[in-house]
Write a structure and sequence with these properties.
Blueprint: H1 2-13, H2 20-42, H3 48-58, H4 61-68, H5 80-115, H6 123-149, H7 154-159, H8 177-197, E1 203-206, E2 209-213, H9 217-240, H10 246-268, E3 272-276, H11 282-298, H12 300-335
Helix pairs in contact: 1-2, 1-4, 5-6, 5-8, 8-9, 9-10, 10-12
C-alpha cells in the first residue's frame, strides 16, 4: 500500500491546489476498487510487484494528472485546421510579391552590371518589407485565433452550418492554385530577363570579361521565348481552370519536351564565338572558347537524361488524368 500512497502523492504534486483533494480522493477510491477487484479474483493480497504492475497500467503520475487538468493550448484542435489554412493563405499573399521582388532585384543587378551602370532599383528593400509584413500577419492571425479559442461562442459558430452550402465536388486532377501562381511569377520574370538581356546579337559583359555568341543563337532565343510564353498562357489557364485535362496535359508534355530538345541542341551547337578579357591573347581566347564549347557539349548526356525524366513525368500526368477522369463518373454512379 506504500506504493499507492507514494503514487497518489506524486499525482497530487502536479494538480492545481484547489482541486488536489477532490481529485486525489476520486483517484484513491478508483485505485482501491481496482485493487480489491484484483485481489478478489486472485483470492489473496497483491504483492509489491503486482501493485507496481497495476500502477504502470495507470500511467505515470504526470500523465494521470494531465487527464484531470483543463487542456491548455494557444489554439485548440477545433480551430487548428482552420488556423493552418489561414496561415497558408497569408503566406501565399505575402511571400509571392517578396520572391518576385527578390528575383527582379537579381535581374536588375545583373542587367546593371552588363550595361556598366551598377544601378539597382530598390526591389530588395521592397521584398524585405513584404517579409516583415508576413511575420506581422502571422502574429496577428495567431492572436486572433487565440482570442477566438477562448470565446464561448466558437462552438456555436462552427455548429451553425448548412449541408446545402457545402462546396461543390472538386474536379478530378485538380491543380493547386498556389503552384500555378508561383509558376506564372517565375515565368514572367524569366520572360522579362530573356527579352531584355538575351536578345540577339548576344554579347555578355561581366566586368572585363566579354563573351559573344554565334548567329545561331537567334534560334535558341526565339524558341525559348515562344515556349516560355506558351507555358505562361497554359499556367494562366490552369490558374483560372485549376484541373488537368488530357488536352492540357498533352500540351504541357509537348512544351516541356520541346524546351528540353532546344536546351540539348544548344549544348551541342558550339554557341560561344569569342571570349576576351583584359590582357588576353588570341591564343588564350581561342583556347577558352574551345574549352567552354567542349564542357557545354559534355553536359549533353545529362541534359538528355533530364529531358527524358521530364517527358516521363508528362506522360504519367496524361495517364493519371485519364484514369481519374474515368474513375469520377464511376464513383458518381456508385453514389447514386
Amino acid at each position: 500500500m506504500d506504493l499507492i500512497a507514494r503514487y497518489l502523492q506524486a499525482v497530487k504534486f502536479w494538480l492545481p491546489k484547489r482541486q488536489q483533494d477532490d481529485i486525489i480522493a476520486e483517484l484513491s477510491e478508483d485505485l482501491r476498487a481496482q485493487l480489491e477487484e484484483r485481489e478478489s479474483t486472485l483470492g489473496r493480497k497483491l504483492n509489491d510487484l503486482e501493485i507496481e504492475a497495476l500502477l504502470r497500467q495507470r500511467g505515470s503520475p504526470l500523465l494521470v494528472a494531465n487527464r484531470y487538468l483543463p487542456q491548455q493550448s494557444l489554439i485548440g484542435p477545433l480551430l487548428f485546421p482552420i488556423y493552418v489554412v489561414v496561415l497558408k493563405i497569408v503566406t501565399l499573399i505575402s511571400l509571392i510579391p517578396a520572391f518576385v521582388g527578390l528575383i527582379a532585384g537579381i535581374v536588375s543587378r545583373v542587367l546593371g552590371n552588363m550595361v556598366g551602370t551598377g544601378w539597382t532599383p530598390p526591389f530588395a528593400a521592397i521584398a524585405g518589407h513584404f517579409f516583415d509584413g508576413w511575420f506581422s500577419s502571422l502574429a496577428i492571425v495567431t492572436l486572433l485565433f487565440a482570442v477566438l479559442e477562448r470565446t464561448p461562442a466558437k462552438t456555436e459558430i462552427l455548429e451553425k452550418w448548412n449541408p446545402r452550402k457545402l462546396p461543390p465536388l472538386r474536379p478530378a486532377n485538380s491543380i493547386p492554385r498556389s503552384s500555378s501562381i508561383f509558376e506564372i511569377s517565375g515565368l514572367l520574370c524569366l520572360l522579362v530577363w530573356w527579352v531584355v538581356a538575351m536578345a540577339p546579337p548576344l554579347r555578355i559583359h561581366l566586368g572585363t570579361f566579354h563573351v559573344s555568341v554565334v548567329s545561331s543563337w537567334s534560334f535558341v532565343y526565339w524558341a525559348v521565348l515562344a515556349l516560355s510564353a506558351a507555358t505562361t498562357i497554359l499556367s494562366i489557364t490552369n490558374l483560372l481552370r485549376p484541373w488537368w485535362t488530357t488536352q492540357r496535359a498533352a500540351v504541357r508534355l509537348l512544351l516541356d519536351t520541346a524546351g528540353g530538345a532546344v536546351f540539348c541542341w544548344s549544348l551541342q551547337a558550339h554557341l560561344v564565338q569569342t571570349v576576351t578579357w583584359e590582357n588576353s591573347t588570341p591564343e588564350k581566347s581561342a583556347y577558352t572558347v574551345l574549352q567552354l564549347n567542349l564542357w557545354l557539349g559534355r553536359m549533353f548526356p545529362w541534359a538528355v537524361a533530364i529531358t527524358v525524366v521530364i517527358a516521363a513525368v508528362g506522360v504519367w500526368r496524361i495517364v493519371k488524368t485519364r484514369r481519374r477522369a474515368s474513375a469520377r463518373p464511376a464513383m458518381h454512379t456508385a453514389l447514386v
